[in-house]
Amino acid sequence: MTSFPGSPKLLKGGIVLLHPDSGVPLQVVVLQYNPDTLSRTLQPQGIGSEPGDRLEALRLKSPPLETIKLEAEIDATDQLEMAAPIVGRLGIFPQLAALEVMIYPTSAQLNDNNSQSRRGVLEIAPMEAPLALFVWSQTRVLPVRLTEFSITEEAFDPNLNPIRAKVSLGMRVLTVSDLGFAHKGGNLFMAYLQQKEQLARMGAQGALSALGLKGIP
Description:
Layout: E1 14-18, E2 25-30, E3 38-46, E4 60-75, H1 77-81, H2 85-90, H3 93-100, H4 107-118, E5 131-135, E6 141-156, E7 162-173, H5 176-179, H6 184-202
Antiparallel strand pairs: 1-2, 1-5, 3-4, 4-7, 5-6, 6-7
């Protein structure tokens, strides 16, 4: 089936995993279908924690805590109709696995830590995961950490391979407070913030008269 010649190219959302040191892309996970809704919550980070703290009432100590939640669908129906060999043999297991491994340490890391433990190493550093970027258009490329992950498998083939599923993702945006200014993720966050400031300046400026005011009392 061909699309209408004049229809715009549909961009997909997804997640890119970068090497934590070099910043080289390790994996690109493209969502099969863009979610219909995307929920974002911003929690301001002020200094004054108690009411009546007059010296700190208007101060901000860091960027807000921003969390993102979405629900994505994965469906193998079209590929099954086209007799795609991998889908016919494994269903959507590969697509699910590509998402799931983002919150696993690698088998190599686990084996290395086990080897160190067997050699008597007393202090083993926690395993570092790749830097995850949530990409939702060219103006929203955010360093994130996955905080919630749930999968609902809804249909199966005769071999019990899942062929349709819903994946719920929860992410927290990582800022320069988390990563620092020299980190690749910190640079991406600053670019995101600067883009947000530019968009805010482009927005229509209201007038006090629209609020029924002639001036500030």
